Amino acid sequence: MTKLKYTFKSDILFKMVFVKYPKLLKELVAVILGISVESITEFVIDNTEITPESIEKKFCRLDINMRVNHQRVDIEMQVANEGNYPERVMFYWARQYSAALSAGQDYSELPCTIIISIIDFNLFHCMEYHSFFQLLETTRYELLSDKMGFHFFELPKLPANVSEDDPLLLWMSLFNADTEEELEKIKTMGVPIMSEAINAYHSVTNSPEYRELERLREKAEHDEAQALHHARQVALAEGMEKGMREGIEKGLREGMEKGIRENTIKIAQNLIEMGMSNAQIIKLTGLSQEEVKRLRTAFYSS
User: Fold this and answer.
1) At what angle do helices 208-273 and 278-285 cross, to 10 degrees?
2) How far apart are CA 140 and CA 130, in angstroms?
3) Average pLDDT by consecutive 10-residue portion of the chain (302 residues)?
4) What pTM value is reported for the model?
5) Which residues have C-beta within 8 Å of that of residue 60, sequence separation ≥ 6?
6) Backbone angles phi, psi at 95, to 5 degrees
7) How many of the other CB atoms lie within 10 Å of CB of 213?
8) What is the DSSP letter of 39?
9) What angle (nearest 5°) sits at the alpha carbon of residue 57, between those of residues 91 and 179?
């Protein structure tokens, strides 16, 4: 097996291929939405740019935002589960949905907004690799609104066998491919759009622009890892210093307390020798009645 140096699981590669080849993106979106390509009369990509500055940001999100037949559609490749992923997806949906309403427009003019997440980790407790969510009443399953939709495609759950008659599974298998042999297997199925997508993959991965963006991403990840390592080392050193300081302070405090107590006991013993009563000694030294009794017993038995 010949491992691919770059795969579609790279969000940079994913976005570059589909921005440079919008026909492929239109075909993919049509398959996911369950509509024909011919029925798409409006298809606009709103965020085609991938700037070096954005790659170097800590929270870089290389999604593709589109207008498809008066709908807002956002598609994203996500490899790592950084926690709270459903909440993150809903946040992006809410931001895009609300931003689509201009001042003075009626709420009825808000467009259907759909988020498509292709993820390389298991998110739900089910066998199916595709999950679609909408707002439903929990007992009648009545749809509240058709303007919200979330598609999740969990790549680890893809079946091993792929048929050329299943375009959705073909696309997901392409995104999941890790070896040259897997790409070749898909290509030999003779599905034209898959061959086009694989040719686009090779064209983009061989381009200097893509190689430079990948270099910047690797550098940014390395710099972030180094910064985290340095922060941990500093925190560890500060923790050790704090522990030593607190230990010294505790030792001094305990030493002083021990010295004061020993001195108090000596004073109480002298007062007993002088013939003072227990009540007088307790008042003068702050010792308890039991402690003074023990000291007096020890004095007379010696």
Assistant:
1) 150
2) 23
3) 92 94 97 96 91 56 90 94 91 92 85 96 96 96 95 96 94 96 94 96 93 78 66 70 70 71 79 81 83 82 70
4) 0.73
5) 54, 220
6) -65, -45
7) 22
8) G
9) 85
